[in-house]
Task: structure prediction
Amino acid sequence: MKKMLLIVVALLVIGGVSYYLFNSGFLGFLSGNQQATVVDTTEPQEGDTATSTPGETIIGSSTEGRNIVAHHYGAGDKEILFVGGIHGGYEWNTVLVAYELMDYLEAQPQSIPANVRVTVVPVLNPDGLYKTVGSADRFEKEDAPATEEAVVPGRYNAHNVDLNRNFDCNWQPVAAWRNKEVKAGSAPFSEPESLAMKNYVEANTPDAVVVWYSSANGVFASSCDGDILEETSILTDLYSKASGYPAYEEYDYYEITGDMTNWLAKEGYPAISVLLSNHEDVEWAKNKAGVEALFSHYAN
Result:
C-alpha cells in the first residue's frame, strides 16, 4: 500500500514538473518547437497620456547609397505625408522646414489628432543635399552656401537627374527647369530616390501629401491631364488661407513634365506643392499654420 502511494505521489510530482517546463517553453525548446509571446510595448496602454510614438522607416537609398528615411508620428488610420528636399541642396530650406515639423511633433505629440498619423520624409535627395551642405542629415542654416551658383549642382541626384522630372506624369527624357534643359532619367522611376517614394506611396496609400519646394511663394494644386481632385482643392484652399501663401490651380510658369505631385494626382492621391517664398528662409510659422489646418481638417 505504501509503495503504491509513493508511486502515485511520484507521478503527480513528475506531471507537475512537466507541466511547468512545457509552459515555460523548455520542453518546446528541446523539441525544436519553441513558442514565444511577444508584447508590443509601442501600443498605447490604458493610462498613457502621449498620443504619438515616433518611429522611422528606411524607405530606400540614394544613388550613392545614403538612406532615405521616413519618420512616423501618431497612430491614426489617416496618413498625411510631408516631403522635403526633392531638389536636395538647391532647395535646402525645404529640408529645414521638414525638420522643424519633426521637432514640433516630438515636442507636442498631442497636436496630432487621434485618428491621424503623420509621416515626414525630410530629404528625398540626400546626395544633392550632401553636395551642397556637406551632410545628408540635419544641418544648420549657416552651413548652406549663400550664392545660387553654389547650390544649383545640389538640385540633382548623383546621376545628374532632376528627381522632380522622374515621376510618371507626362514624363519626357529631357525636361525643363526655367529656360534650361535638365535630365529626367532613362524612364519614369529610373532613379532609386523617386522609386523609393513610389514604393512607399503604393504600400501605404496616404490620404494627403504635401511636398515642399522653393521658391515661387504659393500653394499649388496637383493634376495630370485632368480635373483637380476635390480633396486637392480643399487642401490647397486650407493651407493657403492658414499660411498666407497664395493659392494656384496650376504651376504654369513653364512646362512641367514628370512632376511628383502631378503623378500623385494621376494615381488618385490628393497632393499639393507648397513653394516657399525664397531659397533662404524656412518660414516655419507660416507652414506650421498650414500643417495645423490640415490636422483640423482630418480630425473630423
In short: Residues 1-51 have pLDDT under 50 and may be disordered.
